[in-house]
Queue: 2 jobs
Job 1
Amino acid sequence: MSTEHLFAVVMAGGSGTRFWPLSRRLRPKQLLALAEKDRTLLASTIERVSPLVPPERVLIVTGQHLAEATRNAAPSLPHANVLAEPIAKNTAPCVAWAAYHALARDPDAILAVLAADHFVVDRAAYLQVIGRAVEAAADGSLVTVGIKPTRPETGYGYLEVGGEVGPGFSHTVLRFVEKPSHDTAIEFVRSGRFLWNSGQFFFRADAIVRAFEAHMPELASAMSAVRSATSSDQEARIVEAAYASARAISIDHGVMEKADKVRVIPGDFGWSDVGSWTTSWELAPRDASDNAGPALVVDARGNYVHAPAGKVVALLGVEDLVIVDTPDALLVMPRSRAQDVRAVVDALKGKRDDVL
Amino acid sequence: MSTEHLFAVVMAGGSGTRFWPLSRRLRPKQLLALAEKDRTLLASTIERVSPLVPPERVLIVTGQHLAEATRNAAPSLPHANVLAEPIAKNTAPCVAWAAYHALARDPDAILAVLAADHFVVDRAAYLQVIGRAVEAAADGSLVTVGIKPTRPETGYGYLEVGGEVGPGFSHTVLRFVEKPSHDTAIEFVRSGRFLWNSGQFFFRADAIVRAFEAHMPELASAMSAVRSATSSDQEARIVEAAYASARAISIDHGVMEKADKVRVIPGDFGWSDVGSWTTSWELAPRDASDNAGPALVVDARGNYVHAPAGKVVALLGVEDLVIVDTPDALLVMPRSRAQDVRAVVDALKGKRDDVL
């Protein structure tokens, strides 16, 4: 497989309120070291694909308010490789911009569209799957990577494939299914015909552009001039206008679900979307009593602690809590409530915006 | 009742590890505002008796390492009224020193020996009881104040009186009982003949000196020269020698349990020994869901929070926890474990002495 035309497009526009109080408006999830010590999720993402994609061909798409912090978190990238969106409009405009931008650099560009805030345990297995996805994209297919489900997770989207997922490489996607009910999820897992949608996409830039032209023609039309922009200022003006008129819609809904030739590569490499503090607990090294994080523990089990370096956190007799301490805000909740952190953030809005 | 000879002797030598991480070696319980906003327990104690005892006749006995902080916490007192013990030897040497010191100032001195770290809700009722105790001490009796028990508390000492505790003023104490078992405590409360030992004592200075001479003659002998010391330097040298040879024993064990003419005044004024963070929760104003302290609460009940001013503490879905946050240490435990904080302090010894 030749990778000389391969660009990584890292989508890094998330706000990630579920990791408050560590995450803040100007320090969202992808800029936090939530899975590995001292390495942000964004840096892990870039590092993970580095055997296939050098920094010069890594594009990061993020919000303008995060551009500086993002460049600081990815110092090996050329300054111009951070594409700063004027306004958040979900992932379809983001992918469209990246596709036209890459085409301007290389008419044969192939894109690996990756989330900035996911985590992979087995990098070697991951690279193998990526390689297969890139190969499968060579004929103009729109390719995604599906994760073999290990539980009836209701927080993910699912992909249904034609037959039972076999050891083969590539399957046709019959349909995308949004977060299912618990009963439906159980059925999906039992059937063997469903994969988790990992939100990673692989396609030739010209192929996805054709798909935008077919399924989101206004966006394609507004963005296409990026391909022939002669300066970054000119590109910025085109992008600003395109985003202003763009619908806020995901690449899944806007294009993938409607397109032909959508294929999926099954992957099994220890994938996590790092969806909440509970995931951080699952990914972290734990003591014999299942506590994770820097805590002094007396009769306590199953807790996750995040705290500033040097601070003593003492847990006495508590179980299955998440405790996240920062200099100006502290959160305490059961692990089982980690999906509800947004309720806390909402309650603080307008009252303590200084800690959001 | 004449109070012109009345001295308050405030015993302020406690270390109070049960209030870690707010309490530290150099900032023990009595120097914390645990029951009233912005007022230390020590300051409350002095304020409470101020209608009977002016600052000039308030003596505070504390450890040398706490002398400066104690003087700062009681700025109305003359510098010399803080008696700094060279070494902690429980309460008997402390009371002996205070008795001889007071006698040197006033041969007719009457002492009200008070704990620096307790709390009283009804001050007017308290002052009435104090007045009766002082009156009862006039004839040379050793007088204590007993609290009518409201529950079979196993954490307190009890006083058994001759008959059922009536509305009368003073009862002869038959015996002192250390912290009883739960079954014994239930029996005590049912019998109506037991009172909680509140650790407050009232006696003429010459009467307690005679009791020391009878029951702790070595201590009396070593300390008696304080009465005729001609300088604070000379007094310090006498005290240092007396403490060096003194047995570490409480005034209860060393004298009160052995003495004749021990009487008790029953009191009912909302007394608390502020024994743990659970007590702080009980004493604090609480919201409709029984949470106390400065927290942002979502689906949480029965929690107690102490945190630095301005810090956001968010509780999501947790119940009956104590959360004590300080800049360098954080403690999380169930309210029911508040008696066990010492285990945390012990675990930190030698590892993180900087937070003790």
Job 2
Amino acid sequence: MSIQSEDQILAVIDAFFPRRHPSLLLGRGDDCAEFASASPLALSTDLSLDDVHFRSSYFSPEEIGHKVLAVNLSDLAAAGAVPLGFSLGFICPRDLPLAALEGLFRGMAALAAAHDIPLSGGDITVGDKLGFSITVWGGAARDHSGRVVPFLRRGAVEGDVIFFLSQVEGAAASRPASGLGLARLGLEVLEKGGRAALRDCPAACAALLKPRPQLAAGWRFALLAAAFQDDHKLALPPLKVMDVSDGLRRDLPRLLDGYRRLEAVAKARHGQQPGRQHIPLGADLDFPAAALHPEVLRAWRVREDGAGLAPALEGGDEYGLLCACVPGLLPALVAEAEREAGQPASLLVLGRVSAAPGIRWRGKDIGDMLPGDGFDHFSR
Amino acid sequence: MSIQSEDQILAVIDAFFPRRHPSLLLGRGDDCAEFASASPLALSTDLSLDDVHFRSSYFSPEEIGHKVLAVNLSDLAAAGAVPLGFSLGFICPRDLPLAALEGLFRGMAALAAAHDIPLSGGDITVGDKLGFSITVWGGAARDHSGRVVPFLRRGAVEGDVIFFLSQVEGAAASRPASGLGLARLGLEVLEKGGRAALRDCPAACAALLKPRPQLAAGWRFALLAAAFQDDHKLALPPLKVMDVSDGLRRDLPRLLDGYRRLEAVAKARHGQQPGRQHIPLGADLDFPAAALHPEVLRAWRVREDGAGLAPALEGGDEYGLLCACVPGLLPALVAEAEREAGQPASLLVLGRVSAAPGIRWRGKDIGDMLPGDGFDHFSR
């Protein structure tokens, strides 16, 4: 049975998402949603389209609904923000079965409920292919004295430790493997074998099909970083975070570029022209190849000398947190990551920010290790 | 020449939209935008897809860029909110010519600049057809003493005057015709004749191609309504507003339904079950057919007895403001609408809210005048 009217879709949405929520003054059904807003507010918009960001051929409807919201929440996690709500633009094919419609919103609603955020409203339209545009917003975390903790921002400096925080389904608590490359492997095996790939590569498939936004880690890290900055009277934020959606190779330079951009903004605020001098920053990575997940090691025959490592450095869709921090802050962050109850998070130290431009793994330029150029929708 | 990379699109966006703005703490390029937020905040998300919401075959790129933002701003106008910023999800076909890309963002940037709102960020993806998902947000207006004026909300009651505020390109200041039905006529003639239709029906085409969100009217009306409510010590808001995007026939019942919904919310807040009793509200319309625009009167051979009026009651895409107000407030709103400098706004009184359910024009049920069922993406 497929969809007959817009009202039918609205009824399904109403069945899964409560209309009222303490943070909403006016919810769905009006021209605008209205909410008592935190200030400052962090906000992010992401698009997810069938056959571009997911494939309805091997994602279950529930997984699609989960993932399209999760990738947005991951942006808030990278800011250390506490999510407050989201709006949805829903592109629905005319022939979508009603059961699939319900599955989509069941998956999305479960994730929204886990983070206690209301769906404030949005828009529905017919379209050739399934698609979602989600906008999430969140406020700053507060410390135990109620003080607002600044959002995390980029601005890595030389000497910072670079690490990657990921959460791996079914990982052993004793020695959790890093999620680096796992979603890329999931994409590879699911594209090739469909859901049958879940048997041989369950963790890789789960990483792609059902990423878990690191929200709690984000705002707990923000609290630790703010306290550390106060204790050590630092002028610059000691922790910088971004989420990895386009792969390490494309995203790490963005993290390294952050300081230059923040400096330009600061100068402009003080009426100065943005500095024109280039501040080249690079990274020296030295993590052991064996730290990657057993499924990754096996599938790509990764060797200690770095053979087979390339896809893990290129793979997008990770949605872990890529971080740079001053070395003194690292132990507290590691302890926090290990403290996480239940599913343990894996914090893998990748290397250091360097004054020499370029990104190297054990001295080798990663450009030479990789055939491609990272992920770009338009260039491939 | 078509698009080679995502970076090329970002460069075009950067050329048209300033990265810095007083209301942004952190703009494009990070995981999230950050802004010092007003509270309460009104927020709205709308999708606009090629061949669903516009047609790139007869819209110019500039008109598309303008319209997709305008329809969102119209939602803020209906809340009486002052716009503060917007985010953009942009679906871009691989073969879009670079000149069209520039045209899209030129048109969007001109409207954004006219309302002084920054583009905070968003997402870009490749897709089969051009598409936009825009989220706008805005704060409440303030009166001369700096007091925050509540957003406009629905909640029409029996006896309210129903009127439609529209702004018509090229209308004579002396006797502006109503925009009612004009966008529908524009759709009809552009679908049939393409841009050649601009010669015979310039106002109708302009209404469809380049709608003007009634933002100033929205927040000025909000100020007048708040002052009136204070002066007359009214318990309920004296003015209720929505923007007409699906046509009068579908949207007027939504305006009439607002009170029931607000009452249910209020009861729920006080721990009561939402009332189950039906509060039927209807409308008696009695506006003269001759008040419609000369292009509409001519094209549909509208007669004083209502013959030919039906399409004007059905047509969507109006983006004027549909309002219900207590009769005592009307003169101040009419004066405000006429005061608008330059392009005069047309305020057409349509009729009254009635205790009898259904919508009638001069006693005739409009269901009997109309063949269709209003606009629904899925049912046609």
